[in-house]
Amino acid sequence: MAVIHQAHLVPTKLELIARWLPSQPWCPEGAGEPGAVGAYRFDDPDGEVGLEAHLVRVAGVLVHVPLAYRGAEQPGAADRLVGTMEHSVLGRRWVYDAGGDPVFARVLTDVLAGRARQAVLVDPAGAPLPAPLVRVAAGEPGTGPLAGQVTTAAVGGARVGVVRVLDGTAAAPAGASTLVGTWPGQEGPALLAWTAPTPARTA
What we know:
mainly beta
C-alpha cells in the first residue's frame, strides 16, 4: 500500500516536471505548461523510495514521467535528478527520473513477474483512497523491434525501457516483459514500460 499524505509541496510535482521536461530530448517542441492526466504508484518493499509515474499532456502530446522520491541524495545519479521539493510531512525529497533507478527496476520486474502489483492508495490512518485513474498490469511479451520514443537503461541484470511519448507508436523488443495501462480516453491497453535481460557480454 502507498500512504498518501495530504501535504504541502514546494514546488508541486507538476511544477517540478514542467521545469525538467524541456531538457529532455523526447519532449515535444513548443511544450507549455503540462496538464495532469493521471498517475500510478508502485510500493518499495523496503518503504524507502516513493515510486510514482505521471501521465501529463504537453503541446497536445501525452508523455510518461516515472519518478523516484528519495529522502536523501542518490550517489552517482546526478544525471537523473529532476529536482528537489519540500514536503510538509516528510521534509526535503530528492526526485529522480525513475527510468534508471534500481528500486524502480526491481519493483517493475516483480510486477511483470506477478510477484507485485500496482499500489493501493491509503491515507496515513490506513483508510483507502479513491482508485487512481491510470490502471497498470503486465501485458503480452514484446514482439520487437524496439520502436517509438523510448528511453532505456541497464540496471542490475536487466534492461529497462520507459515509453516517453504515448502516441501509439512504441513497441517493446521481442520477448521483453511489458507493462501496459489504461486511463480515461485510453480504454485499450497501451505500452508504458518493459524489462528484458541485459545481453551477456562476449569476450
